[in-house]
Specification:
The protein is α+β, with helices and mostly antiparallel strands and 497 residues long. 62% of the residues lie in helices and 8% in strands. It has a domain at 370-497. It contains 16 helices and 8 strands.
């Protein structure tokens, strides 16, 4: 027997691990695929949001006096907001946005409020990936549980195949259908294991933080969750005082920050309790060489530095908690990291899809084929994929978030059901893949016809180009498979029918 880095495994242990792996896969594969797919697309959520309102201005820098006037204007528009957010332009993200509890606005370099930010499809995408469109307090826990199960499936899959690392680069392109699928599933699983553990683990930690916080607060802080939050993120630096006062000092604080911390690179300003006597100004400074969301500096309206968050050099738990977001979404290292996350996300989607394909092929080999279920699975994979660009196109027609959610789930279910009743797995794949491609081509075409694409905005143009390229590949692949099908595929379709 060939040597392996793994401890010697008994047949019972391998069978047990394989059984656990298969059962978990069957239970969660459908929704897990949607989570993986939506997460893959959500890597570019910032770019997509700007694409939806591409005519909002590109801003490279903002004067402190303009920031102060923008904050004043936002407070006039949203006087009851408890927090005021100022997103400053960055070198790799030249946009200026000011917002409160009731919405955000794109603002020009001169401080003019150009438009209220409206990105229904991006909001739908976030609802889908973060919460599976469920109520937030419940949905985020469900998604977190999926993350835990995904990590468990990865571990059980590795344990079930002791030679998986040895065979990591032995790929069979032809031969028995099941072996080819197994080979693809195993190879991609090995290549993506670090990525899978990182994104699934951080997703689970983000989602389960609230539950874990309750338990940890009970055991370590006498049940006081606020003390736990203060220990991790820092507490309020001023005693609450709701006495109305003018909003001042944002510009002074910006100037003093550049003096006090010479290498500070602020990208977000949060004004706590704006318009109240206890108001204070918190800066998030980008730490380009760290995964933490940002170092924080809190100022009074008089320009006095009140506190530093010590996010970059504080307790390990604090640093870990504040590194979850960037690690999960690939929001570090610029466009190349996002592109890598996108590619790895596609691999993860393929892993999920092939996992159930292997199950069906095993049944077929044992004489217990389930062609209707195979067609339904293919219909779900490609139908739920197609519904993403369909809803994107629908959002350009003015359809709101609630309706987009309904359209997505209803469309995905109906397409899977139609495949189960009328199509083979192969035909469903080709048909729905072609439909997905056409919807991807339609979205940028409508965007362009409506005159909403600004050619000087490279981020918006990049989204349109990406949709056209991927859409064209989908259509080309679908048309090509209709024109000339491999003999083996025709035979399998005949058998499945």
């Amino acid at each position: 027997m060939a040597k392996t880095i793994w401890p010697k495994s008994s047949s019972a242990r391998v069978d047990s691990a394989l059984s656990a792996h298969s059962v978990m896969g069957l239970v969660i594969s459908a929704l897990l695929f949607v989570l993986c797919l939506s997460g893959t697309v959500a890597v570019f959520e910032d770019e997509i949001e700007w694409w939806e309102q591409a005519n909002t201005p590109v801003v490279h820098s903002v004067d402190p006096a303009i920031v102060q006037s923008s904050a004043d204007e936002l407070l006039k528009r949203d006087p009851d907001t408890t927090h005021l957010y100022v997103y400053l332009p960055r070198e790799d993200w030249p946009r200026y946005v000011v917002g409160g509890d009731n919405g955000s606005y794109a603002v020009s370099e001169s401080g003019t409020f150009v438009a209220k930010l409206e990105a229904p499809w991006n909001e739908f995408l976030i609802e889908l990936h973060y919460y599976l469109t469920m109520p937030h307090s419940f949905g985020i826990i469900i998604v977190a549980i999926f993350g835990v199960m995904l990590v468990s499936m990865a571990i059980s899959g590795l344990l079930a195949h002791p030679r998986i690392f040895r065979d990591a680069f032995r790929f069979k392109r032809s031969g028995q259908a099941r072996l080819a699928q197994v080979d693809l599933h195993n190879r991609l699983s090995v290549w993506t294991t670090p990525f899978l553990v990182a994104v699934a683990g951080t997703g689970a930690m983000i989602g389960l933080f609230g539950v874990a916080a309750l338990v940890f607060a009970q055991t370590n802080y006498g049940g006081d969750t606020s003390k736990l939050s203060e220990a991790i993120f820092g507490g309020e630096v001023l005693e609450p005082d709701e006495t109305p006062v003018p909003l001042t000092g944002v510009d002074t604080a910006m100037i003093n920050l550049s003096r006090d911390v010479v290498d500070a690179n602020p990208f977000l300003i949060v004004v706590h309790e704006p318009g109240q006597k206890s108001q204070h100004i918190q800066f998030y400074s980008d730490e380009t060489d760290r995964l933490i969301y940002g170092e924080t500096y809190t100022y009074s309206t008089d320009g006095e530095l009140l506190a530093t968050g010590h996010n970059s050099d504080g307790p390990a738990g604090q640093q870990i908690a504040l590194s979850m977001y960037k690690l999960h979404f690939g929001d570090y290292g610029g466009l190349w990291i996002k592109a890598a996350y996108f590619g790895l996300g596609i691999m993860l989607c393929i892993i999920v899809a092939t996992g159930l394909n292997i199950y069906f092929l095993k049944r077929r080999e044992k004489g217990r084929s389930a062609p209707r279920l195979e067609a339904m699975w293919s219909g779900w994979i490609w139908g739920s994929t197609a519904m993403l660009p369909v809803t994107l196109t629908a959002s350009l027609m003015g359809i709101g978030v609630a309706m987009l959610i309904a359209v997505y789930w209803l469309g995905s279910i109906l397409l899977a059901a139609a495949a189960c009743v009328w199509l083979t797995a192969a035909k469903a794949g080709r048909l729905y893949r072609g439909g997905a491609g056409l919807a991807m081509l339609a979205a940028p075409a409508i965007h362009l016809i409506r005159g909403e694409l600004v050619w000087s905005n490279p981020y918006a143009v990049g989204v349109s180009v990406g949709l056209v390229v991927i859409g064209a590949l989908f259509v080309f692949r679908a048309v090509g498979s209709f024109v000339e099908l491999p003999r083996s595929v025709r035979a399998s379709e005949t058998e499945a029918a």
